[in-house]
Amino acid sequence: MAKMLGFILSKSSGATSLSLCHKSASILQRREMCLGVLPDFVDGSSDAFTRNSQLMQELLTQLHSNIDKVLAGGSPEAVERNRSRNKLLPRERIERLIDPGSSFLELSQLAGHDLYEDSLPSGGIITGIGPVHGRLCMIVANDPTVKGGTYHPITVKKHLRAQEIASQCKLPCLYLVDSGGAFLPKQAEVFPDKENFGRIFYNEAIMSAQGIPQIALVLGSCTGGGAYIPAMADESVMVKGHGAIFLAGPPLVKA
């Protein structure tokens, strides 16, 4: 699959995001050469420094604990159910997608933390930047172990922020779709506004028109908004035996 994506990305025109990144890095290096070194007046032996250091260490410990929790994804039962279907977890998918030995810059890792009554690790979606065949891409991956990969208001906000960064930096978008669409109990907060769920599809169309590749990988049963994303992408790849897109199941159609 990674080879297929590399071929698709190679067809897109314009300067690559990797070359733009290297150009920005060289500019930063030149600026660093012009900056002086500020003198250090911090007294590392003072009581105030010790108190601040201890407080910062406590905060860092709490931060790392919260990050460890969200990295685990959904509930153990949901994770086991996902594995029983012979499916990878979203971060495992990303790890296999990006270039070997490269790093993935994850964005908004703690989105949704303590925001809702129910746990919503990482807002139910993983976003970040990583290289695929040497080209930096924005990767957006639904987490099916968190509420079936459905979109809560914070999920939408996180997805839109990833698209905004991709648009500004001209990064190809890779959507790893495994989503049940909007979280219906909160649909009144997901749909109505200009900057809500529908904006995702608008952004897809705009970036596609600007020549920024929009590529979707359908990795599970995707309904509603989860079906629109691959339908509007420039290229869609569906995993045989797992990938499916449809607007709604029989009960909702009947209703």
Instruction: Name the helix and strand elements from N-terminus to C-terminus, one letter apiece.
Output: HHHHHEEEHEHHEEHEEH
Structure classification? alpha/beta
Evaluate the radius of gyration.
Answer: 21 Å
Strand content: 15-25%
How many domain units? 1
CATH class: Alpha Beta
Poorly predicted ranges: none
CATH topology: 2-enoyl-CoA Hydratase, Chain A, domain 1
Which architecture does the CATH hierarchy give at level 2?
A: Alpha-Beta Complex
CA distance, first residue to last residue? 38 Å
- Number-wise, the strands total 8
Average pLDDT figure: 88
SS element count, helices: 10
**Main sheet specs:** 6 strands, mixed
Q: Main sheet: which strands, in order across?
A: 1-2-3-4-5-7
The CATH fourth-level homologous superfamily: 2-enoyl-CoA Hydratase, Chain A, domain 1
- The helix content is 40-55%
The backbone outline, from C-alpha atoms, is globular
Structure commentary:
With 255 residues, the chain is of the alpha/beta class. The protein has a single domain, classed as 2-enoyl-CoA Hydratase, Chain A, domain 1, CATH 3.90.226. The chain contains 10 helices and 8 strands. A 6-stranded mixed β-sheet has the order 1-2-3-4-5-7, sandwiched between helices. Strands 6-8 form a two-stranded parallel sheet. A hairpin with a 2-residue loop joins strand 2 and strand 3. Helix 8 runs parallel beside helix 9. 36% of the residues are buried. The mean pLDDT is 88. Pathway: Amino-acid degradation; L-leucine degradation; (S)-3-hydroxy-3-methylglutaryl-CoA from 3-isovaleryl-CoA: step 2/3. Its EC number is 6.4.1.4. It catalyses: 3-methylbut-2-enoyl-CoA + hydrogencarbonate + ATP = 3-methyl-(2E)-glutaconyl-CoA + ADP + phosphate + H(+).
